[in-house]
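Allow me, if you will, to draw on your knowledge of protein folds for a short while. Thank you for your consideration; the sequence and its tokens are set out here:
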Amino acid sequence: MRKKLLLCSLCIPAAAAVLPLIFLIAGSVTGNVEIREYLSPIIFGGDGYAVWHFPLYPTLRNFVELLLDSPEFFQMFWNTQKITVGILAGQILFGIPAAWGLACYEFSGKKMIYRIYIVLMMMPFQVTMLSEYLQLKGLSLLDTHWAVILPGMFATFTPFLIYRFFCDIPKALFEAARMDGAGEIRIFFTIGLPIGSSGIIAALLLEFLTCQSMLEEPLTFIETKSRFPLSLYLPQIDLTQAGFAVCASFVAALPAVMLFLMGQDYLEQGIVAAGVKS
């Protein structure tokens, strides 16, 4: 009996977490007229309460309109992927070596650098927005994708997370490798990267999810609409096109959902590592 009660108590919040996704899928095949009837108190500010039902007359019209008649959607979709790839490439080139250096070497000022990483990681974007804006303006990078990519390449959360995994590598492995004549670069590629691969993948997956939903940075640093990422396209859809808006949200979420399903185990490891105190 106790197990059944426990199972029921866990199923209720689980169902509540899944419901928004179910509504998103159902709304993507609901016509604009039908969905406006359901949500008219929200869209038009009328009396009564908004209700939600599964579509009585399912339609693929929203998908046809989005995929065939909305070229700006694809343009902003590829803008998002361009920004994401640039940031992830920078994290691979700079973040992983930085985490390796902090985890595996002793040098003067190491603790101070680590504390600076933590402080920068905890700071919201609003705190550093002005300084980043002035620096990007001085570099003539405003209103370009580099204005979003460059700060993201040196974000501190990814190195902080990977650092946790590198710290768990036994130092005896490094000593044994050095005794066998391996250099530091070889140790990094043959020991560090393979053993820390789960942490690296987890950090990059979390960074990917962050880049897909990035809103404040492109809104601040990019002015030309043709350079907007997809996260700025969705809020521009008129509420009278509620069905189309839900469909666009569903398609935009597909890459993140698919990647999450493929890398769920790595994400769980990364979240656990991020919650461990140093």
Observations:
- The domain at 72-274 is CATH 1.10.3720.10 (MetI-like fold).
